[in-house]
Specification:
By secondary structure, the protein is α/β, with parallel strands linked by helices. The chain contains seven helices and seven strands, in the order E-E-E-H-E-H-E-H-E-H-H-H-E-H. Strands 1-2-4-3-5-6-7 form a seven-stranded mixed beta sheet, sandwiched between helices. A hairpin with a 5-residue loop joins strand 1 (2-11) and strand 2 (17-26). Helix 2 (93-109) packs across helix 3. It is globular. The relative contact order is 0.14.
């Protein structure tokens, strides 16, 4: 198994791009069936949060695993401790672009990877980003695994972000209103006792949507 990091450039508004660091874990001998798993961290942690899952997926399922250190969180926020988030916080719009651009970078560098085997795993905000990635890139993924995902920007997440959101900004972050655009299978797991992202406000309404 190989482990290394890459730096690529991602969208930074109309004025240019910015560097982003990502962790890559991959099989020793990738073949024609080797696919890709994005492993997207949550609100505050960093690209190493799901390293155990990345190692397991690379070995068991023949996947190159990529974990993007998206902007405003983790080491991008705190270069020393690697935990925390900027305030005000963009809360998943620029972050999903960072993650999708990481996938684009990897596929451009490894054109031999099997594009029929692209999956996205994310937890918490990472689950929100995974779901939004399937909304914004509906013909890309073979499946989404969203663990304890945010499904919309509620007042509590707005408080964490330290900013207010205009109606159009809420709309592009609202998986509940956009989920009919998702074209691949989605696995959602969410504990009903969760108090940070209450099941009744997020995963509960999401799984009841007619997709």
């Amino acid at each position: 198994m190989k482990r290394h990091e890459v730096i690529y450039r991602t969208t930074n508004g109309v004025r240019g791009t910015r560097p982003i660091t990502a962790l890559v874990i991959e099989p020793d001998a990738p073949g024609p069936d080797t696919g890709v798993m994005l492993a997207t961290h949550g609100w505050g942690p960093n690209r190493f949060q799901h390293e155990d899952k990345m190692r397991a997926a690379a070995e068991e399922y023949d996947l190159v695993c990529l974990a993007v250190e998206y902007r405003q969180s983790g080491y991008n926020c705190d270069p020393t401790g690697g935990y925390g988030w900027d305030c005000p916080y963009d809360a998943s719009f620029y972050q999903v672009l960072d993650v999708l651009n990481g996938l684009r970078f990897l596929l451009e560098a490894r054109p031999q990877l099997n594009r029929a085997r692209l999956v996205h795993y994310g937890g918490s905000q990472g689950g929100h980003i995974a779901l939004l990635s399937a909304v914004f890139a509906p013909n890309t993924f073979a499946g989404i695994y969203a663990s304890v995902p945010a499904a919309q920007m509620d007042s509590e997440l707005g408080r964490w972000a330290g900013r207010t959101f205009a109606p159009h900004e809420l709309a592009i972050r609202n998986v509940l209103g956009l989920c009919d655009r998702i074209q691949c299978p989605v696995l959602v797991e969410h504990g009903t006792a969760d108090t940070d992202l209450p099941h009744a406000q997020h995963a509960g309404p999401l799984v009841l949507r007619q997709w």
